[in-house]
Amino acid sequence: MSRAKKIFLALTAIVFIVDIVLVMKATKTGLFSEPETTENLINMPSYEITTGEYVSEYPEETTTINMWRPDKPDVSIIINIEYYNQDNFPTFCEGVTTLMALRHMGYNITIDQLIENYFPHFELSIKDGKLVGENPNEFFIGNPRSSTAKGCYAPVVREALKKIAGEAAVHDLTGMEVPDIITQYVNKGVPVIFWATQGMRASTVGDSWYIERTGETFTWKGMEHCLLLAGSDEDKYYFYDPLNNHGIISYDKELVEKRYEEMGKMAVALVKRGDGN
């Protein structure tokens, strides 16, 4: 190898090492720090609204709202909620989402209490060659601790919340358009239990089973999922998603509204604070 080539390679190595040192220094000082994403909004600061911008109605005693304000006051509002994932309850998204809403509103309750006392469940079985089950508008279908359960629909959550908080504290928003839910509830500090699909993927035709007491056949909608709607901006809706430890996640508004409609436009809000007991 010629002397000139050796010198060239040595200089190249020195430049490479200097570049690495500069990048490491920039990263340490924050010049190349990771941009804010919806995954770390939960740690954003809280702001107190003292103008007419925010008037609390649900509940009346609330005068502050936790929100993310990147640069303008009206860019987005995300309610700050203690997050729970469903890792230990792989099919119980409805219960874990309900737990987040309850805890946010001051109800000191556990997931085990929800399962044992407030979510009636019915497991599918084979009888006379037929798959036999119950109506997910009345029961959680399957064992909430099992990975093979199906889930439940809004009336089950509504009735559970009524038992815990009282009838007046629960608003069934089923059939309401998402922009109206945002305006009338989320923007006033109330997160909403919301039915859509896993990852906002298209729903599918799921299993069918026979309901003995009514003689009906029920067909489950595959990909069903329950999340906590907690914010919006011009283009997206923001959710606390208990699945796969997602934390806060956002989806395009048009896509969310489509999946919400596919699942029957089901939503429930808890509008009254508990006493912390």
Question: What are the defining features of this structure?
Answer:
alpha+beta, Cathepsin B, Chain A, seven-stranded antiparallel beta sheet, two-stranded parallel sheet, 13 strands
How would you characterize this protein structure?
This protein is of the alpha+beta class and about 280 residues long. The protein folds into two domains: about 35 residues; about 230 residues, Cathepsin B, Chain A (Alpha-Beta Complex), CATH 3.90.70. It is about 25% helix and about 25% strand. The protein is built from six helices and 13 strands. Strands 1, 6, 7, 10, 11, 12 and 13 form a seven-stranded antiparallel sheet that branches. A two-stranded parallel sheet has the order 2-5. A two-stranded antiparallel sheet has the order 3-4. Strand 3 and strand 4 form a beta hairpin. About 20% of the residues have low confidence.
Fold topology:
Blueprint: H1 3-29, E1 76-78, H2 93-104, H3 111-118, E2 121-122, E3 125-127, E4 130-132, E5 140-141, H4 154-165, E6 170-172, H5 178-184, E7 192-197, E8 204-211, E9 216-222, E10 224-233, E11 236-241, E12 247-252, H6 253-262, E13 267-270
Parallel strand pairs: 2-5
Antiparallel strand pairs: 1-10, 3-4, 6-13, 7-10, 7-13, 8-9, 10-11, 11-12
CATH superfamily of the largest domain: Cysteine proteinases
Shape type: globular
What is the top-level CATH class of the largest domain?
Alpha Beta
What is the mean predicted local confidence, pLDDT? Answer: 80
> Helicity, in percent?
25-40%
In the CATH hierarchy, the architecture of the largest domain is Alpha-Beta Complex
Uncertain spans, ≥5 residues at pLDDT below 50?
Answer: 15-75
Taking all Cα atoms into account, the compactness measure Rg is 24 Å
Main sheet specs: 7 strands, antiparallel
For this structure, the CATH topology of the largest domain is Cathepsin B, Chain A
Helical region count? 6
